[in-house]
Amino acid sequence: MADSPSFQQLLRDELPRLYAFAYHMCSSRDEALGAVRQLVVDARAQGEERFTGQAKPSDALLGLLARSLEESLGRKSEFTFEGLDETLRSDITRPIDLSGGPLGGDPAKLHSMLWELKRTCLTATLSCLPPGVRVSFVLTDLMGYGPVEAADLLGIKESAYRVRLTRARKRVEDYLTPRCTHVDNQNPCTCTGRLLIAMEANFVKAPPHTLDIPHEPHDADGPRRDMGSLYRSLPVVRLADPELAALVG
User: Fold this and answer.
1) Is residue 119 a contact partner of residue 20, using CB atoms and an 8 Å limit?
2) For position 178, what pLDDT does the model report?
C-alpha cells in the first residue's frame, strides 16, 4: 500500500535529522544511511498511523531509530580511546604539503578535508563510548532533549538515563581536554598536523559532497571547553537530495 501524503511529508521532513543522529551513533555515512533506510521499513511495517497519530510524530520516529540502533550496536563499543590514539597520534605531526600528494595541491580539497577530519575525529571519540552511553550524549548534548524526554524516547527510567549522560560527558571530556586543539589551543593534536596521517591510515576520506562543508575555516570559531557546545558547532551531515528522494519513495 502506498504511503499517505502526510506520512510521506513526515519522512521528507524528518529523515535529514534522523540521518544526522544515526551518523553520530554509527560514525559512518554509509551505516547511517542503512539505519534510516531500515527505519523507514520498520515504520511502514508498524503502520504509519502509529507515527502520524502521535502528538509528536517526529519524536516517535526518533525513538524507534534510537532504540533500534542501541539494540543493533550492542552493549560494547567496537572502538577504544587507545585505538584512536594509536591511529592518529602514534606518529609525529606531519605538516601540510600542497605541492602534491593526496591533496593534489588543491586548497579547496584541503579546506573540506580539514572539516571532515574534525567531524570524523570527534564522532569517532563518541564511538569509543558504549552505544547505550553514547546515545545519551547525542540526544541531550547534540539534539537538545532533556533527560525526561530522552529517557521516554528510549523507554528507560530517567535516573538510569542521567547516569548514562554523566558517564558520557565525563569520558568525552577526560579524553579530549588534554589532547584536542578545539578544546584548548595549547593542546598538541591539531587537524592540520594530523590530516595527512589520518588520510594515509584511511581514517578520513573525502566527503561524497560538500553540501555540509562550511565556508569558514575549520578552526575559525576558536576553542570550546564545553563538550556539548563543541559538538553542536560541528556541521551537520546532510543527505543529498537523491538519497532523500530514494528513502521517501
Assistant:
1) no
2) 96
